[in-house]
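## Example record

The block below lists the input lines for one assembly entry, exactly as stored, with component labels intact.
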Amino acid sequence: ETLACEPGEVYIMNVMVSGHPYWIPVYQGFKQAAEAFGCDTIFSGTPDYDITKQIASFEQDLVKSPAGVLLHPMQADPFIEPINRAIENGTEIVTFAADSPNSNRTGYITSDNLAEAKFAAEEFVKALGEDFEFAVLENPGQSNHDLRVTAFLDYMSAHYPDAKLVGRQATNQDSNAAYRATASIVQANPELDAMWIPEAGSAEGAVAAILEAKADVMVMHADVTPTTLEHIKAGNIHAALNPNQGMQGFMGFMATFMAAHSEVFDPFNDYKVSGYNPVQIPFVDNGFSVITKENAESFDLNAYMEGRDPS
Amino acid sequence: MTDDVILEISDLSKSFGPVRALRGVNFELRRGEIHALAGENGAGKSTLMNIIDGILQPDSGEIRLDGKPVRIASPAAAQTMGIGFVHQEIALCPDVSVAENIFMATTNASRALLMDYHSLTQRAHDVFAKLSDIDPSVLVRDLSISNQQLVEIAKALTLDCRVLILDEPTAALTETEAQVLFGIMRQLADRGISIIYISHRMVEIFDNCDRVSVFRDGRHVTTEIVADITPGDVVNAMVGRDLGDIYPEKQPLSEQSEQEVLRVVDLNETHRFHDVSFCLKQGEILGFAGLIGAGRSEIAKGVCALEGTVTGEVWLNGERLRLRDYQDSINAGMVYLSEDRKGDGVFLDMSIAANIAALKPEQVANRIGLIQADQEETQAAILGRKLNLKCASLGDPVSALSGGNQQKVALAKMLSVNPRLIFLDEPTRGVDVGAKVEIHRILRSLANEGVGIIVISSELPELLGVCDRVLVIHEGRIRGEVSGADMTENKIMHLASGTVPGVAATPHPAV
Amino acid sequence: MDNTLNMAETKQAEHAAPLFKRLIRMRETGLILIILALFVTMSFASPYFLTWVNVRAMTMAFAVEGIVVVGMTVLLISGGIDLSVGSVTALSMVIAGWLFLNGIDPWVASGLSILACTAIGAFMGFFTTRIGLHHFIVSLAVMVIARGACLLGTGGRPLGLYTLPPEFKFIGQGSIGPIPVVIIIFVVVVIAFDFMLRRTTMFRKVFYTGSNEKAAAYSGIRTKKVVFLTTTLCSALCGVAGIIYMARFGSAQPTFGLGMELNVIAAAVIGGASLNGGSGSIFGAILGAVLLSVVSSSLALLDVSVYWQDIIRGSILLTAVTIDHYLNKKRR
Amino acid sequence: MDNTLNMAETKQAEHAAPLFKRLIRMRETGLILIILALFVTMSFASPYFLTWVNVRAMTMAFAVEGIVVVGMTVLLISGGIDLSVGSVTALSMVIAGWLFLNGIDPWVASGLSILACTAIGAFMGFFTTRIGLHHFIVSLAVMVIARGACLLGTGGRPLGLYTLPPEFKFIGQGSIGPIPVVIIIFVVVVIAFDFMLRRTTMFRKVFYTGSNEKAAAYSGIRTKKVVFLTTTLCSALCGVAGIIYMARFGSAQPTFGLGMELNVIAAAVIGGASLNGGSGSIFGAILGAVLLSVVSSSLALLDVSVYWQDIIRGSILLTAVTIDHYLNKKRR
Ligand SMILES: Nc1ncnc2c1ncn2[C@@H]1O[C@H](COP(=O)(O)OP(=O)(O)OP(=O)(O)O)[C@@H](O)[C@H]1O
Ligand SMILES: Nc1ncnc2c1ncn2[C@@H]1O[C@H](COP(=O)(O)OP(=O)(O)OP(=O)(O)O)[C@@H](O)[C@H]1O
Ligand SMILES: [Mg+2]
Ligand SMILES: [Mg+2]
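Predicted C-alpha cells for the full assembly:
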C-alpha cells in the first residue's frame, strides 16, 4: 500500500504579506509534492503585515478541517496557542522560514541564516583580505533578516577582528530609505569596501546610491528580485544568497504530510505513552543558492512562472 | 424709479422636508427701486433670496428675468445674470486677505492669468474710502465681526450687477456705517440698479426704501409703496396683530435701588481697554454704546474672564469674584451672549435642544450625570416658546433654522442657566420686531427680578428704548454716561465718536 | 403657533411607532443593513461562514483593536486625531513585557505600562492644547518616537513572555463559557463608552468642543482640558489594548501595529465620525471596524486570490460607504 | 482711530526695509532658520556633510517624493487629502513597466501610465465632489485598490526593467553638467507650481475654495470643479513621480511607497499647510520635506544607532515644529 491522500484531504500553506513574491516558488514546491501524493492544496494567509489578521486567517483555515497546515508564523509566541489548539483538533502544523519553537508544531523547515551569513563573510574576506571596511543595512523586528545581520556581525568580529564595521542603518526593505542611508554611509566612509544587506528591496536602493557615488563597494545580499538580478549580471552586485525556496516548500509539504500520516511510523521512543506525534522534525535546512553573474540566468522568477499556476 | 419689472417671481414654493419655507410666493422687482422685504423670523425671506441667487432650487414656480423665464442653477449663473448677494450669514474666506475676498468674484470671472495684487489692494482701498478704514491687506480672520460685515458689503458693491440683494446687512453695523451704506444704495438705485433690502429695523425701511413686501409663514402677504403706509401697518401685516409699544416701561426713578448687582473697578487689558469702572444697580438695565471696535465686547468678555488677561476687580452681588475662566463666571451666575452667533454662539450641526443645554448640561442630567433627553427637550421647549422660536423639531440641527431663530437659540442658551447677570452683545441681531418686543419684555422682567442686564447694541434706538442708563465707550475707555433725559442719540453719538471731551464717567465706587 | 403645532405632531409620531422610527433615524442603520447583507451573502457563499469558530475568529480579529477604535472615536469627536495608536499599543506591550522579564509582577507591570501610555497621551495633549500644534504632526512625531522606544527596549526582537502566569494569560486566551475573555472585555468597553458618550454630561462636552470649539469656550467649557483629556484617553486605551494583546500573544512585539492608525481612523469615519470633529458614535465606529474586518475575513475564507483581495476589499469599502451615504441622505 | 495709526506705521516700516521685512513676515522663514541651524550643526559634526556629493545625495533622496508633495499641498489647500499617493506612485511604475515589457515604447507607456493615474485621481474626485464622500475614506479605498492592482499586474514580483533604453533612463539616472536630471525636474516643478499657486488666478481659487467653500461658491467659483481638479492633479503628479522612480531604479516595484502618504502629508503640514484647507505653500512644503529628509540623512551620516534613530528623529521633528510655531507666533 502506498501513501496517498484520501479524497478531500487538503493541505494549506499559510503566510503573512501573501502578495510577496518570496512565497511563489515555495508554494510551487509545496504543490509539486502534494500532487505526487494526490493531495489538494490551498494558498492562504493575510495580505497585510499584521499578526492579528494572520492569526484570524489561520483560525479560519482550521474551519475547513485541513489535514495539515504549513505555516509561516509572523511571530513565534502569538502562534503557540492557535497552533496547539489546531493540533488538538486534528490538524498537523509544520512551520517554515520562521518558527514557533514553544508550540507543539511537529516540524520546522528553514534555510540556515547562520550559514548564509558565514558564507557572505568568507566571500568578502576571499576578495578583500582580512582588513577592510564594511557596512550593513538591516530590518529590525523581522526575525530572519535580523538573524542574517547579527550572525554576520558576530562571525566577522569573532574571526576577522581587523575588518571594521563603519555603518549600520535600518532601511526596512524600503529602497528609497536604503538609497538615502547608503548615500550617507558612502559619504561618511570613502574607504568603504563591502556591504551586506539582508534582503533585496534595500539592495536595490543601496546599489543605486553606490553607482551614483561611483564608489567601489562589493555588495552582497540575501534573496533576489529581477532588478538585483540584473545588477548581478551587470557586475554591480557581487552575489546574492537565495534560500532554496522550492526545497522549502517541497520539504514543508513532506513534513506536514508525514505528520498527518504518522501512523506508518512506529519509532523507538515514548510517543505512544506520552501521546505526541512521532514525526518530530526539529529542523530541516532547505539550503541556499549563490547567485552570481554565471548562473543568474536561471533565477528569473518570471521565466520560471511561465505556464505555471500561481495559486 | 421706473416701472419696468426686472425680476418677477410667481407661485414659487420650497420645502425643507416637512418645513414649507415658501408657499406659492409672488414677487416683483422694478428697475432702480429699493425694495424692502419684511417678515418674521423664518418667514422665508432668506430662502427666497437663496433661490434667486441659485444657491437653492425651488420645488415649483417660475422666475422671470427681463420677462424671460430663467433657471438659476448656481451662484455662478446668478452672477452672469447680474445678481449680487450680501448674505445674512457672513461668508468670507478667513485665510485670505480682505482685498482678495472683496474681489473674489471678479477674480473668478476675469480672464487674466495672473493676479495683480497691487491693483487689487488699490481698488480695495478705493472701495473702503467711502465705507471704512479697514486695511485691505490683513487677513479676514483677524477682523471683528462688524468689520467682516463691512467687507461683505464692500464685496457686493464691487459686483457689476443689476440686482443687488442685501440680507440684513446692518445687523452688526452702527448708525454711522449704516448711513454710509444707505447713501451708496441710493446712488446705485439712481444708476438703475435694483436693490432688495431685508431688514427688521422699520426705521431703515421707511427712511430708505421705495416699496416694501411683507412675508408671513412662507407666504407673500402684501406689497406696498412705503410712502403710503406706516410702520405699524407693516408690523401688523407681519405679525398679524398690533404690537403696541415696542419697548417696555423703564424703571421708575422712585424704585431705584441702591443695591448693587455688579461693580467693576479699574478693569484693564493691555491692548483692548483701560481703567474701566462702573456699577449696575438692582432692577436697572445698563447699556454699552460705542462705534465699531470701540471695545464694548472686549470689556464684557473681560469681566466674564472669557478672553484676554485682565486686571481689576469684579464684584457680583457684593461678593468679590476671582475668576480663573469663563466656567467660573457661569458658576457665579454671570454669562455673556456673543455677538457672533455663527462663529461662537451656536453649534450649527448639533440639535436645538443640545444647543440650549450647552451652558450647563448638568441641569438636564440626573444626579449621576446622565443627560435626560426628555428634560433636555422640555427645557428647550419652554425657552423656545418664551422666545417664539420657530422650528420643526427640537431635535433638528440649528443649521436648519433661519438666522433670527438661530439668534433665539443663542439667547435661550443664556437664559437656561437662570443667570444673576447677563451681558447681551447685540441680543436682537436679526430678530424680528415681534420677537424683539418679547425679548425686551423678558429683559425688563428679569431686571425686575433682580437679574443684572447689560446690553451692548449697535442699534441706538434699542439702547435708548431698553436701557435705564448707557455708558459710552470710545477707544477702550468709558467716555461718558447718559441717563434719563440726557439719553439722546445725539449725545451718545458725540461721545462715541470722541468729538465731545470725555465727561467724568461713573465716579469710582468707594471700595 | 406653527412651531408648537409641529412639535406636537412629531411627538405623536414618535409615540406611534417609536422603535421603528428611532431605528430608521439612527445614523448607524445604514451600516447595519450593509453588514447584514454581507453576512447573508457570505453564508450562501461559504458553508463555513456562520460557524461559531469562524465568527469567533472574526471577532477576535478586531476585538482588541476595537478598544483603540473607541479611544480614537472619542478623540475624533473632540476634533483631534492620533496617528501614534499603533506604536503606543506596541510600546505598551514592550514596557509591560520588559518590566515582567525584569521580575515585576505582571499585573503591576501592566498597570505601570498603561500609566506610561497615559503619560504619552498627556504629553501629546500638552503639545496640542498648550503649545497649539496640530494633532496630526504631534502624533506623527510621537508615533516615530514610540516606535523607536519599542526598538530600543527590545533590541528589535520580540520579547518572549510565555512564562506569564496563566491567570494573566487568561485575559487574552481564556474563555468564560464559550466566549473568549477578550470579546467580553471588548463588549464591556464598547457598551460603557457608547453609553457614556450618549448620556453623560462629561462626554457631551466632547461633542460641544468638537462641533465648534469657540462656541464651546463661549459656553464655559474648558475646551483645552477636554481635548487634553480625550487625547490622553485615546493613548490610555491603546495601553489597555497593548496589555490585552500581550496576554493574548504571550509576547511583546516591537513592530506590532504598523499602519493600525489608518485602519482605526477608517473604522471611526465609516461609522459616522467626522474628521472635523463634533460627530460620531462608538456604536457606529465599531460597526465600521466590523465591516472592515468581516470583508477581510470573508476574502480569506473564500480563498480569493491574493492578487485580487486588495482590489475587492477596496471596492467593497468604497461601495459600502457610498451606499451608507445615500441611505443617510434619504433618511434625513 | 487706533487702527489707522497702526496701518500707517506698518506702511512706513515696509518701505524702510522692504526685503528684510518681507522675509520676516514670510511663513517659511522659521523653517528656513531651523534648517539652516541643522545644516550648521551638521557641518561641524561631520566633515562630509557639506560636500557636493552628500548634498546631491540628500537632494536625490527627496526630489521625486517632492513632486508628490507638490500635488498633496495643492490638494490640502483646496481642503482635500489623499492617502493613496504611495500606491498610485507604485501603480504608475507598474503600469508603465508592464506596458514596456509588452513591447510598447517606454515614452508612450509612461504617457499612458500618467494618464491612468490621472484617471484614478478623477475617479476619486468624482466620489468626493459628486457623491460627497470624504477624501479620507475614498483615498483610503483607492490606496487599497491601487495596491491590489500593483500586485495583480506584477504577480507580486518586481518588474525588472533593465532593458529600458538609455535615453529613457537618463531621466532618472542622467545628469546635465553636475546636476542630476531628477533634481532639475524637481526644481522646475516646484518653482512652476509655487509661482502658479502664488500668482495665477486659477490657483488662487484653490485657496478660496479651501478657506471657505461656501464663500467661494457664493462668489461664483465652481468649487466642486476646483476640488475635482486638485484631486486629479495630485494623482497625476504621483504618476509623474512613478515614472521618474522607474527610470531611476530601472524596475517597477509593486510594494513601493508604503507609508509614503504620512511622510508627504507631514512635509506639507510642517511647511504650513492646514489640514482644514485654505492655507499652505509649495515652498514651505518642500522645506518640510527637506527638514524630514535632512534629519534622516544626518542620522545615517553620523552612524547613530538604529535603535536611537527613530527617537531622535521624532524628537527633532517635534522640536522643529514647536520652534517654528513660536517663531510664527512672534512674527504675527
Ligand atoms: N437648510 C434648511 N433645512 C431645513 N429648514 C430650513 C433650512 N433653511 C431654512 N429652513 C427653514 O425655512 C424657513 C424659512 O427660513 P428663512 O431662512 O428663509 O427665514 P427668514 O425669513 O430669512 O428669517 P430670518 O429673519 O430669521 O432670517 C424656516 O422655518 C427655516 O427653519
Ligand atoms: N482677536 C483679536 N485680536 C486683536 N485685536 C482684536 C481682537 N478682537 C478684537 N480686537 C480689537 O479690539 C478692539 C475692540 O473690539 P470689540 O469687538 O470689543 O469692539 P466693539 O466695541 O464690540 O465693536 P464691534 O463689536 O461693533 O466691532 C478693536 O479694535 C478690535 O479690532
Ligand atoms: Mg434670513
Ligand atoms: Mg462688539
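Residues 64-257+274-279 of chain D form one domain. Residues 1-16 of chain D have pLDDT under 50 and may be disordered.
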